[in-house]
Amino acid sequence: MATVELRFSALPEHVRTARLVAAAVARRAGVDESVLDELRLAVGEACSRAVALHQRNGVDGAVRVALTEQEKRFLIEVADEAGPAHAAGAAANGGDPEDEDALGLAVITGLVEDVEVGNGSDGGVIRMSWPVTPVSVAV
């Protein structure tokens, strides 16, 4: 099981880099070319959500993206360090950030069949996975 881990400051300009790295590693892992656009969009949405949570709550921590190649699946985890009380800080910011979060999660679940939203040690974690096509070796 090979894992590539990317950590970046919670700034919107780093989301594009995370998307590009995720697509490159997914392609190498054997994820079908036909779903790479959806994978890029889902990673971008998950990372943008994590960045927004950090910024709304004044958290300086890093966003973590783990890309894991398993035997039959390619797993991506996007974790934030916004803590469990992210809704309280978001409400103080005006507007309705929970609607933005719900919309982002709806986009992700529309793009990815196997998605799980949960809590990590320091904040939220979005786990997404795609099937991989075994690479055939020519003899």
TrEMBL record:
Statement: the UniProt record of this protein carries the keyword Kinase: yes
Pfam families given in the database record: HATPase_c_2 (PF13581)
Enzyme Commission number(s) of this protein: 2.7.13.3
Keywords from the named record: ATP-binding, Kinase, Nucleotide-binding, Serine/threonine-protein kinase, Transferase
Source superkingdom: Bacteria
MF (Gene Ontology): ATP binding; protein histidine kinase activity
Keyword ATP-binding: yes
Domain Histidine kinase/HSP90-like ATPase residues, every copy: 8-130
Protein name: ATP-binding protein
Upper lineage: Bacteria, Bacillati, Actinomycetota, Actinomycetes, Kitasatosporales
